[in-house]
Amino acid sequence: MKWILLILGLSAFLTLSGCKKKAAPAPPPPAPPPPAPTASISVSPNSIQAGQSASLTWQTSNATDVSIDGIGAVQPNGSQSVSPTDSTTYHLVAKGTGGTQEATARLTVTQPPPPPPPPAPTVSDEDLFAQNIKDVYFDYDKSDIRADQQSSLQADVAFLSQHANINLTIEGHCDERGSTDYNLALGDQRASSVKNALTAAGVSSSRIKTISYGKEKPFCTESNEACWQQNRRGHLVYQK
Amino acid sequence: MNDPAGPAARQLPEFFRIAPAIVLFWICALLASPLAAQDWVKTGTSLGVEKVRLAVADFKPATADPQNAALLKTFNDTLWNDLDVSGVVELVSKSFYPLQVPGQPPEVNFLAWNAPPPNAAMLAFGNLGVAGGRLTVQGWLYDVKNIQSPQILGKQYADTASDTAARLMAHKFADEIIFRLGGGIQGIAETQIYFVSDRSGHKEIWAMDYDGSNQHQLTHLGAIVHSPRISPDGSRVAFSALTKTGWEIMMYSLDLNRMVGFPHMGGTNLSPAWSGDGLRLAFSSSRAGDPSIFIADTSGGNLRRMTTDKGPDVSPVWNRKTNAQLAFVSGRTGLPQIYTMEADGTNQQRMTDQGYAVSPNWAPNGQFLTFAWVRKYGPGDPGALDLYLMDIASKQWVQLTHDGGRNDFPSWSPDGRHIVFQSSRSGSLQIWSMLADGTKLQQLTFTGTNEQPNWSWK
Description:
- The complex is a heterodimer of chains A (about 240) and B (about 450).
- With about 240 residues, chain A is α+β, with helices and mostly antiparallel strands.
- In chain A, about 25% of the residues are buried.
- Helix content of chain A is about 30%, strand content about 30%.
- Chain A has two domains: about 40-110, Immunoglobulins (Immunoglobulin-like, Sandwich); about 125-240, CATH 3.30.1330.60.
- Chain B folds into two domains: about 35-180, TolB, N-terminal domain (Rossmann fold); about 190-455, TolB, C-terminal domain (Neuraminidase, 6 Propeller), CATH 2.120.10.30.
- The longest helix of chain B is centred in the first third of the chain and has 19 residues, at about 70-85.
- Chain B has four helices and 32 strands.
- The interface of A and B includes residues 179, 181, 182, 184 and 216 of A.
């Protein structure tokens, strides 16, 4: 028994110490590989409009077989004018004894801007109102319609007759001169004056509200006649 | 409150009782001169008469309470200002006063006051003290030329100690002095002024004491409001406001501190005016088309149209003495002019002959109108908007303001001696007050834009 134990112990010792002592054999030095090919490709400019052309340029080395997808085999170095109709990725493959190298260049092709679309067939009533309606201006301390304001009123009547669904508010405004209460009454008269002119021309009075702002909400705040004239008005406002 | 002197039994000089007559006299004298329009004439009690020289000694502290100093300053400043702007007395400059001023009757050194330099005829003095949170003020008015029987007035006031109480006591004491020395004039020191201010960001109704103190906001409508008018009993403010449907007359209750109902009239409704008996309201309305004067009862019922001319009619005001006439503004002939009519709409009379005349206000005595007028109006004639006083019977007038800016919205004090108005003379629209002869100008507001003042009836 002692014997067996001794053998086992000895063999274990030998096994363990053998593992420790075994040295890996040095690998043989590798043969120098053939040089790997290099490749690069670029396109200039990298964005064109359809119909224009761009210059594609590439360089390779250590390659025996150079090709570009979509163009075919090409010289190891070169350039070429391209004029694709759609965006294209140029994929260069350079093969040599040392391996294969790839490179890509992207040319973006934009479509020329389309012709402006035809105007939208419908414009909101509010926009039409703003485009067609004209305010009515007054003389100082007056609320009767001036002769030179008749054309504005006619334009307003024409528009409102064609757009019977549109309701409006007429705001009466005054310039900064004069007293507050009197200006509010004057503004009321100006708004009524415009309303009366519209209704006399056939616009239903139920479509028209009036309000006076007197000198509370001026359009222009300078103290001169040009500014005051801006503020002496019947202002027609689209009623939502 | 007691009155150690009993009712004032002194005979007062006749000239204190004839202030309105003096104003009228000077209007007439003025109009007799062809140069009338160019003259700066001061009318009123300051002309041809000598006012009582009144010395007002700073009240003395009666206790050692730390609150005394601040309350004494409030009291002394308020009393001095009330007496100064009253126009009834000539205040003796404090630089003439003896070093020792009295706080009690035994401390009065008559010779130090009744001889030059102070040369005062009257002396107001007293003391103020806080004890246990109670403020007590004792005040006297002495005729310092009458050493045997000097006391005209002796008053004692007591209330919880506060700045407001000190101010109120000064107002009450000032009113007593003005009543005695002004020949029975009811003082205005406790009156209120209602006005429009935009300092909250919107034009709202505000109120303040007559001297500009205690300014506070009443309405919070977030809209535009105009022309507040306090009711004769002081319980409600009527005004016009821009609502969703346009300008409507609205009512604010000072008893309830909130809006109370008034019917919407439709059209543009402006410038409400209370009759002196508080029973009717006149205003301008375009509910029937043209802006016209309407009269309703104060709940909006019994609405009647008073004017039917073409052209805007606005800014009615009642003759509060009779409640039988109104003045108003009409643009029936072009530029706005002042008119009067009977309360039933008859007898419409034009008062101003030219220019641009607005914002009439009827003097409490019924005899005068004050209004804003650009007397010569037109291209190349840039007249100023100034305040004028017109004798209604004769249509003769005098100019009250001369000092630049646009002056508008005059409103009489209840004693008929002061006018509050709006003016742009300081560079922005602010509220000013003056004696009705144009003197004693005082700016009352300074923050934001403040306009359209209306003086309470009592």
